[in-house]
Amino acid sequence: MHHFIEFAQNAMFAPPLRHPVHRAVAQTSRFGKKMRGQAGHPGGSGDTIENIVAMEINFELVRDAVGVKNACEELAREPVLGLDTETTELDPYKGEMRLVQLSSGRKTFVFDMLPFRTNGGLRENSELSPLRGLLESEISTKVLHNAKFDAKWIRHELGAEIANAFDTYLASQLIAAGESERRHSLADVAQFFTGTVLDKTEQLSDWRAAELSASQVEYAARDAAILLPIREQLVDRLKNDDLSKVAALEFECVMPIAEMELNGFGVDCDAWRAQLDTVRGAQAKAADELQDLLSAGVAQASLFGRAEINLDSQQQVTDALKNLGVPMPETTRAWQLQPLAEKYPVVAKLLEYRGVQKSATSFGENFLEFVEPKTGRVHADFRQIGAPTGRFSCSNPNLQQIPHDDAYRKCFRAGQGRTLVIADYSQIELRILAEFSADEKFIEAFRSGADFHLTTAAQVFNVKPEEVTPDQRSFAKRLNFGIVYGVGASRFGLMTGLSQTDAENTMRRYFSTYRKLDAYLRDSGGRVTSERKARTASGRLLRLNFDENDRQAVGAARRYGVNMPIQGTSADILKRALRLLHDAIRGTSTRLVNIVHDEIIVECDAGEVENARITLEKAMTDAAVEFIKNVPVKVDSRVSEAWSKG
DNA sequence: GTGAAGGGCCAC
DNA sequence: AAACGTGGCCCTTCAC
């Protein structure tokens, strides 16, 4: 059977075309105006066709110990090396690494792993020590495209950690600065930045063959060699756009994430199934009861007994509810239906059904298919720049959307004799906002160390902290969260139950309490609309494109652009923390197992838990302090067998 | 059958 | 004044 690895790999590199948000943007940007990809090739010489023909690759296939030694001695003199691998599968737990290609640009060595494979794999083979040494050497920069992929294979199979990675994939994403139409596969990046068109015919070849064809080897060599001229262009572009610092931050985060994906997160499948059974029972019951209630609103109900409708069809459910005389809102979303639930039991039942249906499907049997048999753990796929803000995204499965409910969280466990340490930043985005705005009163609410929402409520409503009513605290809390997203009075009123005028007055009161916060948000919004860009503390850039005549689009771009530095700085901090943690736990039993935006979960030997906890807290605090100088940073941590609270 | 698009909802 | 930011997954609907 042939394995179309390169093809699949490229598909993986490409920003997901079918991603809902990006898809929406591809037609009309999220701010309403048609977007265009950038024309021309920055730095490209323009002679695209000539480049293909002219690209002579000087390469050598290495298949024995002497060859490895000689090649590595020659390559060790180079300051920058292109690095690529060819593998038989995408997943290191499922396939094998066939080739490792290292290129100085002038000369490329293609290391065939097949002759070096022993019963213990490649790890034990000392003939590969020079290669490991080269990959781990701090002296040379290694240029890779989607370094996480190769780093995982090299870590898993060779036991080596790549030092000094330069990732052309991440660099291309940073330079694109949120331009969603730009693609980032190796072929796209090569074309865009050097004008070279890559020949893809060998993508579909069989990398398991005992003897690789000359064409296969040349193809492999070229993919490593091409990385050097691409990097040259990227380095210039990164400098020009002041992105060098954030690029270093991203590159240093690759190895921690590669290791985290290899580590995986332990899942108690029995506990998961038990919870699923419970939910399925509740789902069946809720479905049955909902059918009964709805059937009264279905025409043929009386003739044939109960008329079954598809409870997952918004259309059918809406029609049935209308027939029952329920005054339907514009959408059937939970927050819109909630007010009707008290008066109409059928609406309450629908909401109940929705809840259990979500649990039974999104967190059902399918989740268990992601458990790797070899490890008994889930090895999710983390996209390092998953959002233009710099946040991670996660899929297959998405470990960032596991319900809070202990019934789910308790299924994520440490291995035998091991313990989890779970740490998260307290109110990190609000602290970032406090730092950016330099609002003394807002900062003071953090410095006091007391309940933040209560303290802000006392400030806003001008009462003593002990006199703050639960309502006042709740208003302050919702506003504290809302302002980060640019909430308006109407939405604030909707979620608090305040009238439009009361909501407006409360917001006015809030912003007059925090004058500099108000000024910062206005200023930030103004800059977003005039300069059409935004940056985080690390310098991460977002370019915004919108039609200035479309008020809705301007408003959306403004909220997005104001939110991005806050959300993105939080991502910067997390990424920095991951690197500091990675360096601090080297040689210990501590392993990174999951991250969720402001939370880091590690697993360690039970006896080492106190050290691990201190190390984790220190890494997170040190990282945050690099970006937040004037507001105290707080990290909460706990030690547990499982992810649950208890 | 396959896939795009939209609704809905889980997380931070 | 005028829609609260970022993701992924599951479902239905509809077009091909």
Features:
646 residues, alpha+beta, Nucleotidyltransferase, domain 5, Taq DNA Polymerase, Chain T, domain 4, Alpha-Beta Plaits, 6-stranded mixed beta sheet, 4-stranded antiparallel beta sheet, 17 strands, disordered N terminus, DNA-binding
If you consult CATH, what is the topology of the largest domain? Nucleotidyltransferase, domain 5
The main pleated sheet reads as: 6 strands, mixed
The level of helicity is 40-55%
Work out the count of structural domains.
4
Mean pLDDT: 88
What would CATH call the homologous superfamily of the largest domain?
A: Ribonuclease H-like superfamily/Ribonuclease H
Overall morphology: globular
Major β-sheet strand ordering:
1-4-3-2-5-6
CATH architecture of the largest domain: 2-Layer Sandwich
What is the first-to-last residue Cα distance? 49 Å
CATH class of the largest domain: Alpha Beta
Percentage beta strand: 5-15%
Outline the secondary-structure elements:
Blueprint: H1 5-13, H2 20-27, H3 48-54, E1 59-62, H4 65-75, E2 80-87, E3 97-103, E4 108-112, H5 129-136, E5 141-144, H6 147-158, E6 165-167, H7 168-176, H8 186-194, H9 214-225, H10 227-240, H11 244-263, E7 265-266, H12 269-295, H13 314-323, H14 334-341, H15 345-362, H16 365-368, E8 371-372, E9 377-378, E10 381-383, E11 393-395, H17 406-409, E12 418-425, H18 428-437, H19 440-447, H20 452-461, H21 470-485, H22 489-496, H23 500-513, H24 515-531, E13 533-535, E14 541-543, H25 551-584, E15 591-595, E16 599-605, H26 609-627, E17 635-640
Parallel strand pairs: 1-4, 2-5, 5-6
Antiparallel strand pairs: 2-3, 3-4, 7-9, 8-9, 10-11, 12-16, 12-17, 13-14, 15-16
Helix pairs in contact: 6-11, 7-10, 8-10, 11-25, 12-15, 14-15, 18-24, 18-25, 19-20, 20-21, 22-23, 24-25, 25-26
The protein binds a DNA duplex (12 and 16 nucleotides) through helix 2, helix 13, helix 15, strand 11 and helix 21.
